[in-house]
C-alpha cells in the first residue's frame, strides 16, 4: 500500500511540473499527420489556445478520436494532458520547420516548402 501511495505522489508531482505547450513553443500549433499506410494515419491537432486532440484514421476515415485536452511540453517530450498515458506522449526529434526539398519517408511525403515535425522518429506533415 505504501508503494502505491508513493507512486501516486511521484506521478502527481512529475505531472504538475510540465509546461503548457504554448508557453514553450507556439510553432507547434497546427494539424499534423503521419501515414502508416496509404489509407491509415495518425493526426495530431494542436489549437491556438494550447488544447487539441488526436485522431486515428483507418481506410481513409476517422476510426477513433480523443476528447480535447491541453498539450504540455517537458524536456522535449510533447504530452497530451498532464498525465499522458500509453501512446499520449512523443519525443520531439525536430521542431516545426520548412523543407526546401521533397522528403519521402515510407508512406509520408513532405512536399517542398511545407512545414513538418518529427516525433518519435516519424514525420508529421502539416495539413
TL;DR of this structure?
The protein has 2 helices and 12 strands.
Q: What does this molecule look like?
A:
With 127 residues, this protein is mainly β. The chain has one domain (2-126): Lipocalin (Beta Barrel), CATH 2.40.128. It is 15% helix and 50% strand. The chain contains 2 helices and 12 strands; from the N terminus they run αβαβββββββββββ. The chain has helices at 2-16, 21-24; strands at 19-20, 30-35, 41-46, 51-58, 61-65, 69-74, 77-80, 89-98, 103-105, 108-110, 115-119, 122-126. It has an 8-stranded antiparallel beta barrel with strand order 2-3-4-6-7-8-11-12. Strand 11 (115-119) and strand 12 form a beta hairpin.
Essential attributes:
12 strands; 2 helices; Lipocalin; 8-stranded antiparallel beta barrel; mainly beta
Amino acid at each position: 500500500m505504501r508503494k502505491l501511495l508513493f507512486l501516486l505522489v511521484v506521478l502527481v508531482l512529475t505531472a504538475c511540473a510540465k509546461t503548457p505547450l504554448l508557453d514553450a513553443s507556439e510553432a507547434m500549433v497546427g494539424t499534423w499527420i503521419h501515414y502508416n499506410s496509404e489509407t491509415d494515419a495518425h493526426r495530431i491537432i494542436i489549437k491556438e489556445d494550447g488544447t487539441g486532440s488526436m485522431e486515428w484514421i483507418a481506410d481513409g476515415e476517422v476510426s477513433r478520436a480523443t476528447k480535447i485536452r491541453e498539450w504540455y511540453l517537458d524536456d522535449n517530450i510533447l504530452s497530451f494532458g498532464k498525465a499522458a498515458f500509453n501512446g499520449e506522449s512523443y519525443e520531439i526529434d525536430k521542431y516545426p520547420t520548412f523543407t526546401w526539398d521533397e522528403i519521402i519517408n515510407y508512406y509520408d511525403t513532405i512536399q517542398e516548402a511545407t512545414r513538418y515535425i518529427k516525433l518519435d522518429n516519424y514525420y508529421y506533415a502539416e495539413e
